[in-house]
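Hi, here's the filled form for the chain we discussed.

Project: internal
Contact: R.S.
Residues: 26
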Amino acid sequence: MDTQNNTWSESFNKKFRVKFSEQQKK
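And the returned structure, exactly as it came back:
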């Protein structure tokens, strides 16, 4: 479960960073 949670967190972080980057670009 720990590794699964880590993978989910990483995926979420990536999406969040992309969204944040797009917002900053605008």
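Let me know if anything looks off before we file it.
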